[in-house]
Structure formats: C-alpha cells, structure tokens
Amino acid sequence: MGSSVITARAAASFEPVGRSVASARSFVRDTLQGWGFSDIVDDAVVLTSELVTNAVVHAGTSADLLCLRSDEGVRIEVADRYPEREIPLQGSPVSMGSPDREGGRGLQLCAALAGHWGVDYTPTHKTVWFQLDLPERPVGTRAAGPSLPAHLLPLADTRVRVAVVQIDRTGSVTAWNEDAEELFGYSAEQVTGKPLTDFAAWPHTPGTGTGIADALQLSRWEGSYGIRGAHGRVIPVYASHLRVRDTDGEPSTVCLLVRDHERAVLQTPLRGPASDKSGTSEGQSTDPFEMFIGSPAPDDLDGLLQRTVERARDMLDGDSAFLLLATDDETELEVRASTGLPSARQRFARVPVEAGPGRYGSARMPAVHEDLTAVPGAVPLLNSTGMRSVVTVPLKVEGRLTGSLGVAAEAPGRYSNEEALRLQFAADRIALAVESARLGELERLRRGSLSFLVEASDLLAGTLDRDQTLALMAQMTVPTLATWCAVYTIADQASEPYLSYVLHEDEELIDGIKSLLSKIAPPDPVPTPGARVWSAPAEVAHQAALRTSMRSLGLSGSPTHPVTPGIGPTLATASAVGGETVVLPLVARNRVIGMLTLGKPTDEHFRQEILELAEDLSRRAALALDNARLYSERTAISQSLQRSLLPPELPTIDGVEVEVIYRAAGEGNEVGGDFYDLFPISDGAYGFAIGDVCGTGPNAAAVTGLARHALRLLAREGLSGPAVLERLNSAILDEGARSRFLTLLYGEMRPQDDGSAELKVVCAGHPLPLRLRQDGTVEPAAEPQPLLGVIEDLELYEQTVTLDPGDVLLCVTDGVTERREGPRMLGDDGLADVLTTCTGLTAGAVAARIMRAVERFASEPPSDDMAILAMRVPGLHTD
C-alpha cells in the first residue's frame, strides 16, 4: 500500500480443492465485516472468489490469502505457487475474452471493480493483488441557520422539554420519558401499551386519507399535530418521527415532541440565502433542491423519493402524489413512491410510457387532467382510487426521460398550467439527484447480484443429489428474493408438473401452503423465458378463507358453530400467499423440467431487478437439477446392473457355513468388476467362484456377466475345473477389443460323511485362498496359475484341499490385500495375520472381522471393490 500505515492484517491458506473457494469467500467477508467495511464486502468477495479459483482450480496449487487494512482502504493479495502461469499485463492487446464466460474473468473484474490492482512475480510464487478504496463518508455540519441577535431568537420556556415517545409496530406506546409526563400530564404507566391515536389529535384535511398511522410508517417525518393532555385540552406540538429497528430486527418509531411554539428546537431548517454587503436577500441565490427537499437530504433513494412525493403533495395542496422511475429502455415506468394511495398494492407496478388518448397520455411532457372521468385510463395508477384531477411532469436528465412526478386531488378542476409549471420547476431541480441515486442503487444491486450468483453457482455445483438441489434452490430464494417459493418438477414430456418442494420464511406456514398448492392445478409449463404472473394461489386462498370465515359465523346455511382451530391455518395461508405470485420456467437442454414459483404476502409487485436475478438463478438451478436427475438415473442403472451381476441368494449347504461380504467402491454410479458366486452343480457338489475383472464400467460388466453365467453353465455340463476355465478363457478372448483380463478363483466342494469337506480348486491369477486350521496356523490352499483373457493356450490344473472340522477357507479379491495407508499396504501377510485371530469363530464372524480390519487399516475410504467369501466346516460336537 505504498507509504500507507498498515493498521490490521489477516491471513489464511487454502488447499487446492474446490471447497477452498467458498472458505476463502467466507474468510474475506468475516474479516471485512469485522473491520467495519461492509460497503466494500461484495466487491471484495467477488474478486477473491475469482482469484482463489484461478489458484486452486486452474493453477492447481494452494492459495495464500492476505488482507491488509490502512487508512486508505483494503488491499487483498492472493498468491499461488505457479509462477510460470503467465498473467496478461495491463494495457496488453491480448483479449481477455467475454466477461460472461465461466472462466478467466478475474483480471477483468479487478480492472472493473478495484481502485488499483497488479501482479507480482517471484521465482516460487505469483501474487495477484487488488485495492478497494473506502467510500467517502461526509462528516461535519449538514445544515445550519444564520447567526441572529438575541432579541430575534425564537421564544421558549425557561426550560425546554423534549418528550421522547417510542411506538412499536402496532402503533402502541412502549416508552414515555419524564418530559412527556411533565408536558402532557400522563405517567408512563397510564399510557404504556395504549395506541398513540388515543392521545393524538390529528389535523385531518378534507379529502385526504393520511393519518397518524401513516405518519408512523414513514422512515422520517416532521410536522404539527396535537396531544390531548390529562386535563382534556389539546396541546399543539411539533414532532419529529424517526423509524428505527432494534437489535432483534423489530421496527419501531421514536417520536420527539416539543410545544409547537418551540418548533425551532426540532424543525429541520431550510438553507437560506447568503447575506451580502447590503444586508438584503433580494436576488441572492438559493439551493432549489434543498429548498424543495429540505436539509439534510435523505441518503437513500427510497427516502429521497418518499420525501419528494410528500413535498410535491404539500406544495400543490393535493390529496395524493406519486413518483415513477423509467426502465432502462424508457418504455415503461415503475412505481417507486406514493403518498395518499394504496402504496402496498402499487409499489413496483409498471405502466407503459404512452397510455391513454390524446396529448395527456404522454409521460414525456407535462400534462394536466381536469377530470379523469372524461379520459378513462389516462393515468393507470389512479384507476379506482377516487382521484379526479391530476398534474404530471417528467423528470429528465440531459433530455432523457428518467421518471414522472404527479400530484392528484379528489376534486375535479384543481390544477392548471400554472401548477404544472411549479411542479416542473421542482422536478427539474431534483431529477439529477434522483437519477444519481437510482444509478447508485442499480450499481449496488448489480454487485450484490453478482456476489449472490457466484455463491449460488458454487453451492449448486457442489451436489449431484436431486433432493439437496431442490432444497438449495428454495433456500437461496427465500427470503432473499421472495417470502415463499414452490418448485414443480416434470419427469418427462408426457408427465404433469409435480409439486416437489415448498419453503416459507415462517416454517409454520409451509404445510398450509403445500396443502393449498396440491389442491390447485399447477402452472402451465411454458418454455418462454422470463417471469409471468400466476393468480391462482391467491384466488383459491382467499376463497377458502372466506368460506371458512362464513362457516364460523353460521352464514353458509348450516347451523352456527363456534370458530374452530381450523380457521387459523386457513386464514394464515391466505395471508401468506395473498400477494403477487410469479412463475419462472426451469429449462435445461431445451426442455422444460419444472417451474420455480415465487410469492409475496402483499400486493406489492416484484422489482424487475429481483425478477431478472431470479431468472439468472433459475437457469443455473435448472441445469443443476437436470444434472442431478441424470446422475440419479445413471446411479440407479449402475446399481441395478451391479445387482444383476451378483447371485440373488446363496444356497444352504449341509455341513458347511458360508458367508459373503461385498463392498462396492465409489459413489454408486460405476459398475464394479468384482463378483462372487456359489451354486449347486449335482450329486451334493457345489461350485464357488470369486473373481475380479480389470477396470469398471460397462465393458467390465460385460465380462463379469459372461464369466458368472458361463461358469454355471459349463460346471453343470460336468466339466472339470480346468476345462471350465479354459473354455471361459476362450470366450473372453472372443470378445476382441471389448475383452478384459480376469483373475478368478474357482472350485468345487463336496461335504463328506465324516464332517469334512473336499475342495478342488483352480487359482487363475487371483489372490491365493487361505486355510485357517483349528490350531491357528494359516497356509495358502492353492498355487498361483495364469490369469484369464490374456493368452489362448492355457494349461491349468486343479488342486485338492480337505477342510477338516473347524477349518476355514478364506477367499478375497485384491481390493482387500491392496488396501493402502500411505506407503503401507495390508498385503497377503497382513491378511494372514488377521486370519490367525479368527480361530473358533463362525464363518460370518470371520468375514466380519476381516472386513473390519481392512476398513480400519486406512483412514480414507476404499478405492477398490472388495469381496470376501468365507467357508467353514463346523466341528462334529459344537456347543
């Protein structure tokens, strides 16, 4: 950071694995939020994600991350151990490609988002760094009045009392200080828990619907009203309201009140004209923006727009006012602020720029409507609101339409061209500030959306489980984009959409929404991109709630019944889904595989930016969901094929205990090459086999199936063991390029009358079978011979082994003997050592002990299939 003083640092290292990218993002986010730099967190997370991805994924090395804080900003360095990987220099003519592609965006983002960035090389490391400057935070005086002589100062009592009253979200008093007790005569105990409207005398203006409840919902409000004191008289007060939120996230309003003649204590002063040498104010310049909006101006866009419509309404003595902002293509206007109108229903609604007949239909010019009943639909926002006359003016910046400001009244003929000129003058003063705030908001939304999509893509790419993918889709949507969501899936083109997942930010409402949606027809699977409104859930919920309410009141023709507990969930569900609902298609590989449904509890419309972000998410989620489906289908096919290559059940052999344990490696989506079999031949003889085909997958499965079925067929033809394997070897070689070599242990077993068992064994390239005697000695029960599927002319021979009572024959595949932990391997000797501890155990106990020892030999999961076949001849006299 040059000569800047480093005031804090944080460092971490990340291994070259995919999950390190998410860990690095969390580390940077936690570090910067801990330093109090939440303004730049999103940019830092996006850049860190790209650079760490380059290091651990593309370069394949570990990444060292260093965060440095100074008085100038934050510098973040990402170093990898691949200095030969060249980085294009700034100003280089080499194209970095499109920013929309999946990879290679790190340097483009550094250039776009960071104040400074660069690359440092050493013989062993390459470090890419970027610096984010902190936004300027204005300090000092925000507004000030002139210096006045003492006799011109406003008159106040000997002691100025400021009543501090706190109101909760329901409008009830929660706090009442000593000055409030002195001013109005009530103690805190008398007013706590009671609505403020019980004491406030609100100066209602005829024709307006604004009251104390509306004022308490505004983020900031100043004005005059009255408080009815304990003596019964109304005390005029001047109030300043501020909407706040406590540490639990609950909103409340803090009201500061003074006597009306002491309003100078609280009233936000307007910036007056500067005095000149003559001492007069005539002709002196003022700040029209501050004169209209007031000082200090709101810092956020919503606050600025709300202050604008309130001042515009007051300036023209209207009953309502509204402000719309233009979309990027200027073809539509989006409602962003209103007063005196049902704002919850209208907010973020869109109306076309050209609407209605004649010149009054254009939002690009000032317009005066003396009576809206004469020109129906001229101002769609005011339909069914009772407003009769309206004046609208455009907000323009450099000749480009950026919005529209309107004031309306319930009486006709209230406005003329003079009011239009006054409103246009105010709109011209504020247009640039509104556009600047709007662009700032769009930039923050864009950066936040980019960070959101980066994390969403990382999460969706981290799973191939269908149910987990559905849950991730819903959890990323609620509550970031919507209050509730539902995911429908479509199995194939002939299937109807199926309700697969429902989520609401209040878990108690999930079952009610799921029940309601299951009773109505799903939305049509239209492949057209973009969100479309779906009104069915709100309509059905309202109808069900109405029927339940009427039944509870005895209005449906049936006998009157008391209100049942069932009315609660029904009404709660109606409230939860009673707002706007939109549907986005989930399209993957040119096929609609489902729909993502988003909903709100109120009629407030979804913002277009939110819908565009949801559309981006739906594209990524659809591909992830389809990948999970394909993976599940492949896994199911592999598991079904694997089951078909193993015997359905083992026969029961008199005088011999048999136990088999089979463990397939991997994630279940590959067919293993290990197999086993035990089957009757004839005349009390049984054939047994355990083998391992080279490799996995379909080709290995073909050889496995050929071997298992050929063994049964040839053995039952009465051929000896060597003849069976020689013919199997020929069959494998006949497969040509698809053939795989095969290691196989095959034998025939005949239980004897004296309690022993006679075995004839051929071991073709397979791990040798081990014989455990009653005295604990272990020895190989066969000799090694050539494996199958390599050479044509095999000369195999069989060996005879007799298992005495109490003896065990253990047969395994090489996944057991080749179990590794670093440089160590279990091997034949290690297996024999484990087997020596199994004297006196049943065949099942022997197999279980061997498998337990193999699993405990290494901490990592097995990398190869494992099969264990244990056969034991029990003693003649066993307890």
Summarize this, please?
The protein is 31% helix and 25% strand.
How would you describe this structure to a colleague?
- The protein is of the alpha+beta class.
- It is 31% helix and 25% strand.
- The protein contains 20 helices and 34 strands.
- A hairpin with a 2-residue loop joins strand 16 and strand 17.
- The radius of gyration is 40 Å and the shape is elongated.
- The termini are far apart.
Extract low-pLDDT stretches: 87-104, 140-144, 205-209, 270-288, 355-361, 557-568
Question: What does the average pLDDT come to?
Answer: 79
User: Can you tell me the overall shape?
Assistant: elongated
Kindly report the spatial arrangement of strands forming the biggest sheet: 7-6-11-10-9-8
Helix content: 25-40%
Question: Strand pairing plus helix content: what structural class?
Answer: alpha+beta
Beta-sheet strand percentage?
25-35%
The helix tally amounts to 20
Q: What characterizes the major β-sheet?
A: 6 strands, antiparallel
- Separation of termini? 82 Å
DSSP E strands, number? 34
- As a whole number of angstroms, the C-alpha radius of gyration is 40 Å
InterPro entries: Bact_Sigma-Reg, GAF, GAF-like_dom_sf, HATPase_C_sf, HATPase_dom, PAS, PAS-like_dom_sf, PAS_fold
Protein name: SpoIIE family protein phosphatase
Organism: Streptomyces atrovirens
Keywords: Hydrolase
